[in-house]
Amino acid sequence: MSAVQQITVLGATGSIGLSTLDVIARHPERYQVFALTGFSRLTELLALCVRHVPRFAVVPEVEAASRLQEELRAAGLATQVLVGEQGLCDVASAPEVDAVMAAIVGAAGLRPTLAAVEAGKKILLANKEALVMSGALFMQAVGKSGSVLLPIDSEHNAIFQCMPTDFSRGLSQVGVRRILLTASGGPFRQTPLEELEHVSPEQACAHPNWSMGRKISVDSASMMNKGLELIEACWLFDAKPSQVEVVVHPQSVIHSLVDYVDGSVLAQLGNPDMRTPIANALAWPERIDSGVAPLDLFAIARLDFQAPDEQRFPCLRLARQAAEVGDSAPAMLNAANEVAVSAFLERRIRYPEIASIIDEVLTREPVVAVNELDAVFAADAKARVLAQQWLQRNGR
Ligand code: NAD
Ligand code: MG
Based on the domain organization, do 164 and 306 belong to the same domain? Predict the structure, then answer.
């Protein structure tokens, strides 16, 4: 391998950002940090800058930027601080950058991730919401720029590893019958249905197998995460929603499977630690140490599988419907979910109301074509307004 690769980490202060920096730090001969971005927790961002010495740091507003710039100077660093969405797009598309870890959570990640795609960067995609919102446009942009798109979501990284290299010819062309997307079932897999009215954000965020940011933790509890991943899989692997089956697998050891027409089913296994898919994507097509402990099959002893229960997890049904309808439906689903999850985390709504809000937004607003980015953001904004109206009408 040639020169040291320059990496931008969007969302460096988050769970995926920190795991990425952990892997990068194990391979200083391969990777150098070009830019780090953060939205809150700016003391942590400062500490990360001291540790990784990036050329640029990005924060959301001017005041925070001058403060961080001052602190960086006092620490003897030449790191330059940029501001806001433009700053994010600049560090995602700068000519020196080889690869961009897209790990901002939610719709806020779309523009910077697309900026990296349009600049032809290698994209390590954790920000699934970007693809859910604008799948057709996103994949067109990837095709146009020749960007290499590597999935970080553990399931999609597993599918990617189990696919033949020429899968872009189409699933049937390469003999794939189905994609089997595994799901842990989250913390409420066995909670009595009547108790779901009263579960707290803390309970929702206490995932049995994975340690993640708060938004994706709630999505995992509601299985909206699996719904978003179903849509993500359709775009990444050019699959129809009917070709993606969700399989509840509580141990989170098999990260997903690919079912071929000859009856072969390939799976990728590993300990539930995001450093494995991150290292896989960073080094692809090579392999590097990720710091993850070897899998101990004797300690795991058994692997279980169940069909998902859509009565318990209505968000999964809503996401599958949005995937089938297409056009603006996934962007609206995603936006309504973001508003509902924030309201739940702020204790303004009860957990089952997350699905009620999304259902109402999708029922009330007609689906429109999304042939340009403005239309995606318009659908996103409309869904947010409708979700806010639900909150107001119900006194939250
Ligand atoms: P997190 O909440 O821990 O981190 C989010 C990051 O985004 C932080 O750095 C935060 O500062 C930044 N951010 C938040 N709002 C922003 C805004 N408006 N503008 C700019 N930056 C903003 O989240 P996470 O768990 O690291 O997840 C990040 C993404 O990766 C999500 O899209 C999630 O679905 C996906 N993902 C996460 C995991 C996981 O294990 N954590 C697994 C698969 C996929
Ligand atoms: Mg996942």
Answer: yes
Q: In testing the pocket of ligand 1, which one of 9, 216, 292, 341 has its CB within 8 Å of the most ligand atoms?
A: 216
| Residue among 118, 119, 95, 125 at smallest CA distance from 10 | 125
Q: Which domain holds residue 355?
A: 326-396
Q: Which amino acid is at 387?
A: A
* Residue 318 lies inside a defined structural domain of this protein: no
CATH of the domain at 121: 3.40.50.720
Are the CB atoms for 276 and 156 separated by under 8 Å? no
Distance CA 350, CA 29 (A): 49
Task: Look over the chain and give the mean of its residue pLDDT values, rounded to a whole number.
Answer: 97
CA dihedral 275, 227, 104, 61 (to 10 degrees): -160
Find the ligand nearest to 155 CA. Answer: 2
In the chain, the number of structural domains is 3
Biggest alpha carbon–alpha carbon distance for the chain: 63
- pLDDT number for residue 325: 98
Query: Phi and psi dihedrals of 308, rounded to 5?
Result: -70, 150
pLDDT score, position 2: 60
> What is the residue-wise DSSP string for 311-343?
TT-HHHHHHHHHHHH-TTHHHHHHHHHHHHHHH
Q: What percent of the chain has pLDDT over 90?
A: 98
